[in-house]
Amino acid sequence: MPDEMLLHLPMVNSLLERHKGSAGALLPILHEIQEGIGYIPDVAIPEIAHALNQSQAEIRGVISFYHDFRTAPPARHILRLCRAESCKSRGAEQLAAQLRERLQLDDHGSSADGNISLRPVYCLGACACSPALELDGQVHARLSAERLDALLDACREDA
Amino acid sequence: MSLYLPCDSLARAVGADEVALALAGQDLQRTSSRGLYWLEPLLEVDTPKGRIGFGPLTAADVPSVLDALKGEPSAHPLALGLVEELPYLKSQQRLLFARAGITRPLSLDDYRAHGGFEGLNRAVTIGGDETATEVFDSGLRGRGGAAFPAGIKWRTVRVTQAVQKYIVCNADEGDSGTFADRMLMEGDPFLLIEGMAIAGITVGASYGYIYVRSEYPQAVATLRAALDIARANGYLGANVGGSGLAFDMEVRVGAGAYICGEETALLDSLEGKRGVVRAKPPIPALKGLFGLPTLVHNVLTLASVPLILAKGAQFYRDYGMGRSLGTMPFQLAGNIRHGGLVERAFGLTLRELVEDYGGGTASGRPLKAAQVGGPLGAWVPPADFDTPLDYEAFAGIGAMLGHGGVVVADDSLDMAHMARFALQFCAEESCGKCTPCRIGSTRGVEVIDRMLAAPDQSGRDEQAIILKDLCDTMQYGSLCALGGMAPFPVVSALKHFPADFGLQSSEADQ
Ligand SMILES: Cc1cc2nc3c(=O)[nH]c(=O)nc-3n(C[C@H](O)[C@H](O)[C@H](O)COP(=O)(O)O)c2cc1C
Ligand code: SF4
Ligand code: FES
Questions:
Q1: What is the pLDDT of residues B322-334, one digit of tens each?
Q2: Does the beta carbon of A87 lie inside 6 Å of ligand 3?
Q3: DSSP letter assigned to residue B289
């Protein structure tokens, strides 16, 4: 096990201690770990299982069920393009094609240099101003091909 | 001179923060949004006659607006005049969204100055029996989609004895084309808290959860801050609003699973499990969260309660038609010129909504269809647009109102692609509990692919028959509405737009 993973253990354990006794705390625990570390490292799983008195398989089953949870470090930037109906009706598919083309990635891809990850998302609640995307947690709506390019340029600049 | 600019996440997504930055040094308050999103960022300014507006603004427009305010404001090219006189807003019946665009989301003073907590006060005064009766008599039906009478659920939970009962607010709002829950949570969080507190003390539940989808971080943060304020002011805690009864609650965040909007999957998720749908019975009102009686309602349902209590059931019932009573915040989205929130009594037609409010397509191209009620809703062709927005009338044309979202499409949208997407989405989001949904959705995508690749008409007709058959199996054989209603957008697309599938007529697949 790489040392850096072990470094996360104190954080995981103090957080588990805090949630002890709170009912159904698994999702809040996973969210907090991911927020703190960027993903849910493998070392955390036996600790969570032990603290909640559940099997590791149960914990892994929950992690894999939900689209949000990651088990590997994310890229520097996470770009989630909305692909649901409202945004599709305003050209989301053309923007998706533009992304694939420019980044040479598929819809779920991550660039080799670790700079950007693409993910689809199904509705950001921005449908009155479709199309929309979320970049590093920030929503951008009323997108155009030019604005998308400008956002990508900004990501590349701080790579 | 006071200036007002929304802090709503969508206003921010189209540049409100940049406008605010350009206004540094002014007396600027960040309010909720009016929901007139095509005008966002919408800056409002106090005048003796009322607030006047400017929008949609960019930061670059700010200096000229400030100049205009020193002289003749209406001369500015982006001047809108009195905001409350804009026909889009003036003709609405804003009950639930009465404070939208006016108050600051986290100001308890603003909330109280605009009718806040009148409902809770009355509930405390009249007691649980009468409060439950008011909700029942109002005719309020669940706004999450299924439109079940709220009063019946309240009575069931109220009379069920248990050591602990819960209120659960379903804020998973996963449907494309909907954003009313988001607007309400970000813009008027105390209203939801008040509604849940009334529900709690009425049905005898001392704890509540708001389950918010993770795509709405600003709603989560706003609600959490509002909970602290409400608690510090005695609206939550051991003695809610002086009732002598205890109620408190917390916010829980989803993790990107559409199926967790289904109430029983949501309960499993709250329990820390995978969001798998439970077979009913038992209904959540009897055995819900942790096996205990639980009142599960959508955000808008709970947020309607304070008003019903404050003004009385009769006031509320006077809006609407048939068995669809009260108002509904419809949400105009997709390819629409004037996207935004339109709160009106049930009964206006889809045409009025899309054409009069929406102003037609944003692209200016011919209207093709509107999908009403989210990804599981049917595509309604313009020929059916005179249908009144009423639960029963929509069921009558094989469609549904759902959560009130309307996604408009112009003639460039390929309905075969949309039908395929509906099934692909179902396959991705299926909880996996039952076969018609889990397997059927994947097979459906393959059938559409084969149909589109078929070299001739007879090959396509053959696949169309298989697709209809498969949709039938999904509709009647699925445990919940994900598998049960995903066929709606597919079958409606096939019926109204056969040419998009390379079919000659809708009769081909009979
Ligand atoms: C697949 C699926 C997704 C759903 N998503 C939501 C949702 O996001 N929000 C919601 O309030 N109800 C949703 N519902 C409806 C809930 O199951 C339930 O009917 C609702 O929360 C009850 O509240 P109400 O009585 O206030 O409508 C969904 C149902 C299904 C089958
Ligand atoms: S219809 Fe789909 S989502 Fe619903 S219970 Fe069955 S498998 Fe789960
Ligand atoms: S469908 Fe894209 S934001 Fe709602």
A1: 999 999 999 999 9
A2: yes
A3: G
